[in-house]
Amino acid sequence: MSKQTTIIHNSDHSQTETGKKFDDDSVNETLVKYTAITVMLLAVSLSLYQLYTAGIAALTALIQRSIHLGAILVLTFLLKPPFPKAKKDRFTIWLVIDWILAAASIVCVMYICVNLREIIERQGDWLTCDKIVSIIGVILVLEACRRVIGFIMTGICLFAILYAMYGPYMPHLIIHKGYGIERIATTLWLTTEGIFGLPIGVASTFVFVFMLFGAFLEVTGGGAFFINLAYAITGRYSGGPAKTAVVASGFMGSISGSAVGNVVATGSFTIPMMKKVGYRPHVAGAIEAAASTGGQLMPPIMGAGAFLMAEFTNISYINIIKVALMPAIMYYLTVLLFVHYEAQKYGMKGQPKESLPKLRTVFRQGLHFVIPVAILIYVLIANYSPMMAGFVAVISTLTTSLIANTIKWAYIHPMQKQTKKSGERIGFGKFCKIETRRIIDALDKGAKNAIMVSVACAAAGIIVGMVSLTGMGLKFSSMVMELSCGIKVVAILLIGAASLVLGMGLPVTASYIVLATLAGPALLDMGVPLIVSHMIVFWYSQDANVTPPVSLASFAGAAVAGANPMRTAFTSWKLAKGLYIIPIVMAYRPLLGVDETYSLMHWEVWLTILTTTLGLIAFTSGIERYLKRKATLVETILFYGAALGLFWPEYKTDIVGFILFITAIALQFLYHPETRKS
């Protein structure tokens, strides 16, 4: 009897456990289902909202950015698990926590939208609810940053906040009065000086729209067309598509005026192209970021820099672009060398002509995809805003794709069903359903692709806000002159550091203006010619695009490539080494011409161009430890020694550097360590 009772009890217990497990699974499946539906609807809605604000009706900055960030935060918490092992389809508790965080994000953003007028009116006289919402909002951004980017960027943001809090305890050179947590949080969340500042402003406008353009190209087949086109043209050469991407980004960057905008515009098809031929994702994103940054240095437009410099210096526009051309070409040479060495080191050899797509076939199948790109280039050249250009690009891509698919469906060849009736044309209703599904997929993909760059920009806004609040940017610029002790190279390096700090919170144009005002006169006092001092300042005003921790162009490239943002940023920093070296050469040698006519037809100018170019080749070979093959330690030392000698502003060292360079090249061709080992 006792045994039977035990069996019945165990059976009841088993049924209870089974029922409980069934209930838990049902609840979990329901949460997962509604989470997926919510994510899809929110992603599509965000993309439509961005298109509306880009091309139809613009909103005030704080409203535009807050709605964008709110949607991004919700998508982040519902898509990205808090920890790698926290599977959303197994542990209900994590889904519940994520929904709570998503709800908190909506509340914090809606608080700004509903109370915007009152928030503006009581600037500085904050209510208790203002402070609470701000603290929660900052914490949400930090948590989103941790999930999407990792602990490094989150740690930098926390360090910036601690610096603002404990200013009185900092070293004398960077000391400030310090701020309370309420002041810090409200500055970051309720103004455009922090999280809702320039970085998220960039992400919430043309960056998102251009990423949506890339999503539409991918979904409609445009991405595949450009990849096949690049293969057909350059597939026979080592790293050919990447080299083509570098040159194309240079020309586009000069026109667009924005390194970040150029990354997401041209990177939409160049980065997948590079990945397909074998470049690692973070390298592909970094190549695009470095190439796009160089576009601001490339005449004829230089991202409006040529016109500004002409106004500042009273030097004709023609002379500005004349002297700017050769340094820009030298910068691109270094990027191309990095690209070439990467291809050689990882065995990215050209493919046989027989295995490549035929150019005529590729054009015939996807010629209509050239139309949106041509329209995009025209709109940029016509001086429309990048946001409007992105809007036009998306609409033109959608329109041309629909027209082409409709023609194919109606006249050229029937779209086939995946059934036994292979010759039957699908009905018009089914055709419309397929095209609608593609549009929804593109809208969904565009929003999800933007998560990484938007979160990175929101986190960068914390650093920007703390730099602005503590006055660190201007303080850093004034320290340059005191610390340089009248030494030009030290002053130039310090200006580069100052531009990096300023570039966190200012666009390139504004950064150039501030640096030209603060640091330009000091360079003039040191004997640097007017045009040279402005060109140095202008070059260094670009470095924040590719230099961690706030390298927006690199973050945009990482988002398109699906790579880690910080890893991409450090790689782009390496690729853009010419950005730091060439301005120093300008200060000591006549790279920009001689006398007040800025004549380039002088032997010293061409000698400088030759030695600097050889020095850049040697320096790049030293960093990559590669030229014809992997360099030995001795050859690497020779490359670095050659670079130093060729950069040094004396003719004797030029000769020594040249001899070292020739020696290193001879060893590369004549000495084969692999053969010796065998």
Overview of the structural elements:
With 678 residues, the chain is mainly alpha-helical. The protein has a domain at 602-678. It has 31 helices and no strands. The protein is globular.
Q: Mind summarizing the main beta sheet? A: none
Low-confidence parts: 1-11, 13-22, 414-423
Question: How many beta strands in the DSSP annotation?
Answer: 0
Helix content: over 70%
Structural class: mainly alpha
Strand content: under 5%
C-alpha geometry? globular
How far the N terminus sits from the C terminus, by CA atoms, comes to: 83 Å
Averaged pLDDT: 82
Tell me the radius of gyration.
28 Å
Tally of separate helices = 31
Short description:
With 678 residues, this protein is mainly α.
Question: What are the main properties of this structure?
Answer:
disordered N terminus, 76% helix, mainly alpha, 31 helices
Write the layout of secondary structure elements.
Layout: H1 2-55, H2 61-79, H3 92-114, H4 116-121, H5 128-148, H6 151-165, H7 181-190, H8 198-220, H9 222-234, H10 240-256, H11 259-276, H12 281-295, H13 305-313, H14 317-345, H15 359-366, H16 370-381, H17 386-412, H18 428-449, H19 451-470, H20 472-484, H21 488-503, H22 508-518, H23 520-525, H24 530-540, H25 552-561, H26 565-575, H27 578-588, H28 603-624, H29 633-647, H30 651-670, H31 673-677
Helix pairs in contact: 1-2, 1-8, 1-18, 2-3, 2-8, 2-19, 3-5, 5-6, 5-7, 5-19, 6-19, 8-11, 8-17, 8-18, 8-19, 9-11, 9-15, 10-11, 10-12, 10-14, 11-12, 11-25, 12-14, 12-25, 12-26, 14-28, 16-17, 19-25, 20-21, 21-22, 21-27, 22-24, 24-27, 25-26, 28-29, 28-30, 29-30
